[in-house]
Amino acid sequence: FKLSAIRRILAFNTTKRVILFGDNAEYDSEVYAQIAKEFPERRFLVFIRKTYQQGSPILEGQIPFLSPLEVVWELYKSGIMSLE
User: Fold this and answer.
1) Which of 5, 9, 19, 81 could form a Cys-Cys staple with 75, CB 3.0–4.6 A?
2) Sign (positive/negative) of CA torsion 5, 35, 78, 26?
């Protein structure tokens, strides 16, 4: 369901930068990797919350996080967010 829903959203939205949030409880990292392959013209920033020790792997290029502060820091470093 998640894969088809994201495809529909991206088909109607022409934004070039996309931020995706998920967790390692199920298949978010795999779904988001597939989406990135299908939409190579987009720039994806993928955050995966490490909710489980034995969860799905966090894939290359995806950003693991435990707290919202880590997300803010990454958004700041990437120039998306200002701390002012």
Assistant:
1) 81
2) positive
